[in-house]
């Protein structure tokens, strides 16, 4: 089957990659829903990944993201991240990379123009619309830092449950899906929309890379049962 997908890739003028937490699993970043090791097996997303939760307990939520930020800063992109970046460097304009991941590992591997649908955990922004007094560099330190003028809080620049995705990023991702000849869907359970929907609107062939069955398998033209850092280098080498 990998030979078939390599053929599709060779013929593809417009490739798209859609990645999820499994893409970073071999770098040591836990996924969200894998058995007992997934983050959501240990932590309640409703208590930690919603605006309501942040307003109810800003310190707990801020500290939890600070813990994840430190974890992400300690790990390195894996061979899968590097293979995608190298392919795009060898074949400019032939691969649009769309990710649900907030870990920045694609970008650290050298991928440019990554469409990060769910934001970036290493960045933060104001919780409420900033007032004239809201200057990030003058924010009072703390969990979370806040504006000394009005108390506006800093929050992680990620998309929380119940929040809209960045409009332009989503529009660019939908355009890439509707234009693609081949979409590689790597390391996602396909449970979270609108991201998972991109695989369903893909114009071209859809090939899934995942060691486990996913909700998107029925929408796929090929399913490669394996891990991202092992299969992507084989798939993407010239
Ligand atoms: N290589 C490829 N896939 C893997 C690997 C690996 N080494 N290890 C695990 N996987 C697969 C799992 O089998 C699973 O299907 O990665 C998938 C991870 O699924 P989730 O934990 O649900 O992560 P994801 O699909 O990215 O979640 C979507 O949900 O929690 C929110 O905003 C968060 O972006 C996230 C979104």
Secondary-structure element series: HEHHHHHEHEEEHEHEEH
Given helix and strand content, the structural type is alpha/beta
In spatial order, strands of the major sheet run: 3-2-1-6-7-8
Give the bound compounds: adenosine-5-diphosphoribose
Low-confidence stretches: none
Largest sheet: 6 strands, parallel
Strand content: 15-25%
Total count of strands:
8
Helical amount = 25-40%
From the spread of the alpha carbons, the general shape counts as: elongated
Describe the protein in words:
With 238 residues, this protein is α/β, with parallel strands linked by helices. Helix content is 35%, strand content 16%. It contains 10 helices and 8 strands. The protein has helices at residues 2-11, 39-42, 45-48, 51-56, 58-74, 79-90, 105-108, 167-179, 197-200, 228-236, and strands spanning 15-19, 95-99, 115-116, 119-126, 154-158, 182-186, 205-209, 222-224. The strands form 2 sheets. The chain has a 6-stranded parallel beta sheet, sandwiched between helices. The chain has a two-stranded antiparallel ribbon with strand order 4-5. β2, α7 (105-108) and β3 form a beta-alpha-beta unit. The radius of gyration is 19 Å and the shape is elongated. 41% of the residues are buried. The mean pLDDT is 95. Adenosine-5-diphosphoribose is lined by residues 20-22, 25-26, 31-34, 38, 100, 118, 187-189, 191-192, 209-212, 214, 227-228.
């Amino acid at each position: 089957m990998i030979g078939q997908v390599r053929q599709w890739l060779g013929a593809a003028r417009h490739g798209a990659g859609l990645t999820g937490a499994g893409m970073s699993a071999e770098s040591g970043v836990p996924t969200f829903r894998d058995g007992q090791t997934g983050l959501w097996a240990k932590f309640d997303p409703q208590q930690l990944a919603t605006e309501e939760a942040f307003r109810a307990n800003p310190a707990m939520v801020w500290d939890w993201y600070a813990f994840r930020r430190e974890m992400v800063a300690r790990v390195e992109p894996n061979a899968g991240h590097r293979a995608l970046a190298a392919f795009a460097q060898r074949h400019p304009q032939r691969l649009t990379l769309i990710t649900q991941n907030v870990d920045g590992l694609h970008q650290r591997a050298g991928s440019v123009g990554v469409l990060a649908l769910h934001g970036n955990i290493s960045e933060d922004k104001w919780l409420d619309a900033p007032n004239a007094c809201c200057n990030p560099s003058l924010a009072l330190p703390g969990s979370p830092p806040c504006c000394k003028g009005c108390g506006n809080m800093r929050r992680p620049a990620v998309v929380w449950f119940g929040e809209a995705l960045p409009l332009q990023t989503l529009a660019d991702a939908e355009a890439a899906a509707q234009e693609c000849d081949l979409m590689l869907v790597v390391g996602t359970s396909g449970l979270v929309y609108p991201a998972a929907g991109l695989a369903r609107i893909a114009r071209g062939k859809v090939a899934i890379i995942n060691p486990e069955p996913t909700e998107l398998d029925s929408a796929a033209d090929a399913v490669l049962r394996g891990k991202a850092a092992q299969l992507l280098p084989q798939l993407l080498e010239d």
